[in-house]
Amino acid sequence: YVAAPVCTPSRAGLLTGRYPIRAGQPGNTGPDTVGGLPLSEILLPQILKPRGYRSMAIGKWHLGFQPEEYLPVRRGFDSWFGLPYSNDMIPPWVKTDRPLRLYRDATPAGEVKEQDQLTPMYTGEAMRFIRSNRDRPFLLYLAYSMPHLPVSAPARWRGRSRGGLYGDVIEMLDWSAGEIRRTLEELRLERDTLVVFTSDNGPWHNLPARMLAGGVEPWHTGSAGPLRGAKGTTWEGGPRVPGIFWMPGWVRPQTVFDMASTLDLLPTLAALAGVALPEGRVLDGFDLGPTLARGAPSPRREFFYCLNRRLEAIREGPWKYRHAPGGAPELFHLERDPSERYDVGAREPGLAARLAARLVEFAREIGAEAAA
Fold first, then answer.
1. 306 noted as active-site residue
2. Residue 7 is among the residues annotated as catalytic for this protein
3. CB 93 within 8 A of CB 87
4. Where is 268: in which H helix or E strand?
């Protein structure tokens, strides 16, 4: 599960290990936003820096860019190459006079006219960073701009997939991940490097009408398979995404989590690197190391579904209680019913009431809203 089913708060949760409401960043930023993820928050690269880690962010940032104190290179990353926010934040999709600019560290490095080269450029930057830091600890945060809309691919990738342009983009990303893995193996770093592959939210099936312009088609949003809902919702299709961990010799092959979250990445990586977690603040993540290495049960027993400043649902084991605005409370058993089709709240009134109370209790703890 990602920390939230939309871009900015999802990334805030990953990099801080805290629910985005607790971290002070419950919603998205845009091209005219001043500020971003509060400067008081401690990010993953800041935690790793005392152990000599060299860190780089590549791709979409979306946690604030003006003033420059909010840029990655002011938040613990040693370098950055990418976009300050989503690749759709230009006309015709968003009303703004601000052009879409690539950044190199804290300096704009040119306006993006055609987006089809973004993915291969990011991959090239990633491979150069890995090669230049082969002899020291490093953290690479690689956030590809696509398949966020609008999707595009260079000529060599277009028409290769039976899934159309969206499929071409996914195959290019698959190639990109393979190139990074190949680089690690070539440098004999694969047994010393944990690779995590995931997404920031589910598909944008419920996209607004403004997005259906400039060549964007509704089927460019991908699929959540059997999961109900989409990006921007607290149905499973919003925050439930693929999560793949790879580190030969350490990650136990074919380990499957009962439940895990991007909130757990910060404490997991900190433990693996042998660094202490920051004192004086509450973290919402758990160390997944024993699960990854030995197949131990996941330490995560519950997950709260955030949308903006609201908590709309809680999962405990296989049970999910959801109470969103305008709807009645519902209870689902996600192992029997991953598509959330069958409300069994009437059969389990005591369980539903207990989960509702826990949802309200946690909302009060982090300063969120929740239906009573």
1. no
2. yes
3. no
4. helix 265-273
